[in-house]
């Protein structure tokens, strides 16, 4: 594991595997999740398929900088500030997190990359594909969305159940139990995981890093950031959208909406998949992403060749 310090002072912890001359893929993780949430089967599967693959901890997660000097403002007040003339002090936005990714690319001397974003990571990747389109070779959006969907009866039920596990003074056992319950509630109905596996993952996650305040600040960043529906129409990068039919965090309708807004995007709705990475589906997901990126890479190289030929003919 390595670290870099960006201009804002944020230190990012990352892992960089694969041939450094191979097409680069940057994996951007979701809300409150550490880079180890990317399954090794997917991560090393992409490396073994001939890519240079980077995963990292977003600011306020894992071993990257925790911005504890910024107490998390009220989520409700932040939401109101988007609709009413009420000021809310927001530590950072999704745009700032996108700048972190660009800083990481600069440090690693990566001019262009294929972006794979999960959940909130997909939101960050969308912003990059719009505002830094020359840096993005392709886009893969997994269980993500382009706007804040309205709460459903199912999602509200999940939050109510999770609230029972929160305590004012969090401890290791509480954090582990909360992580287990969270993954049980948002997981995939068609691919249930045993409590033993969920506990092993929870222990690994909590013992590596636990930052409840950071989770809140990231949630504030999502809430305070602008709706991207009008922006993602501008995305030109080849886009693959992977979503679960049983996702209660972002319903599948959100994926279908993105597919309509992003021209020539491809949509895969996975029956029975929820808002998590299913071990049984990792071989398929690796195959889908590999195929998508290799096709995008061929298109990119063809464009470069055609440009060189055109320049040679003009001389």
UniProtKB/TrEMBL annotation:
- Domain of life of the native organism: Bacteria
| Species per Swiss-Prot/TrEMBL record | Pseudoalteromonas aliena SW19
Which InterPro entries did the record assign? AB_hydrolase, AB_hydrolase_1, AB_hydrolase_fold
The AB hydrolase-1 domain sits at 23-277
PANTHER family given in the database record: AB HYDROLASE-1 DOMAIN-CONTAINING PROTEIN, HYDROLASE, ALPHA/BETA FOLD FAMILY PROTEIN
Name under which the protein is recorded: AB hydrolase-1 domain-containing protein
